[in-house]
Amino acid sequence: MTWRATVLTLFPEMFPGPLGVSLAGRALASEVWALEARDIRDSAMDRHRSVDDTPAGGGPGMVLRADVLAAAIDAADATSERPRLVMSPRGRPLTQARVADLAAGPGPLIVCGRFEGIDQRVIDARQLEEVSIGDYVLSGGEIAAMALIDACVRLLPGVMGKLESSTEESFSAGLLEYPQYTRPQLFEDRPIPEVLTSGDHAKVAAWRQAEAEALTRARRPDLWALRPAQITGPKSESRKSPKNKTDG
Ligand code: SAM
């Protein structure tokens, strides 16, 4: 069955956008995956096609109405077998592990918020999983949905060739990726690290592992602390064991 992303948005014209080019675009054209962008406004119930209203309790901005959005979800997805996501800065942060899960399934239905957000009752009633792409606020869920879809699509079978393998990428082993280099050999007095041109594969692998560990430790102590003890190398065993180890 083709992996399918269904996006509910007030701006369906934003799709496929960047998902229509390069790796994801070629895969879309060759039907490795399918994309359906549906206009939430098509489920509006009045002649003005309104989808939002003022927040209960007062405050600035507008809120997407529960009844309109529920109708849009129901029209898009009669079965509940697909993951139902709503992009939200309040959501659980998206991880490569969750991306891999989603890529392995039938493909999600994704609700894109706008304005001040979405009436909580539709999130609860339709059991939407709130997903964040980072601790900052975008003006709408569309770019967040595109980021999530792009991350999933590149993991679908046949999308990445040998040349673009995901096995050594950032997060694949709980580490950030080592630095990459290519020709020219010398760039503004900076040579490629000698080990990478030595032809010694074992030394190259050891150098890359050490660089990945050093980068992760320096830049992402949170990721470093989550690394399972069994995959930390001998060098790492002397470090303090993490106090707050979780599955997340
Ligand atoms: N008032 C909301 C709050 O403070 O949490 C922000 C609403 S934001 C302006 C409008 C929509 O953009 C959200 O409903 C959500 O769909 C999307 N959005 C914004 N930031 C996001 C993020 N970091 N991750 C995922 N979606 C985001």
Task: Describe the protein in words.
The C terminus is likely disordered. The chain folds into two domains: 151 residues, SPOUT methyltransferase, trefoil knot domain (Alpha/beta knot); 60 residues, tRNA(m1g37)methyltransferase, domain 2 (Trp Operon Repressor, Chain A, Orthogonal Bundle), CATH 1.10.1270.20. Strands 2-1-6-5-7 form a five-stranded parallel beta sheet, with helices on both faces. Strands 3-4 form a two-stranded antiparallel ribbon. A two-stranded antiparallel sheet has the order 8-9. α3 packs across α5. The protein is built from seven helices and nine strands. β5, α3 and β6 form a beta-alpha-beta unit. It is an alpha/beta fold and 248 residues long. The longest helix has 19 residues. S-adenosylmethionine binds next to β5. The site of S-adenosylmethionine has 20 residues, from β5.
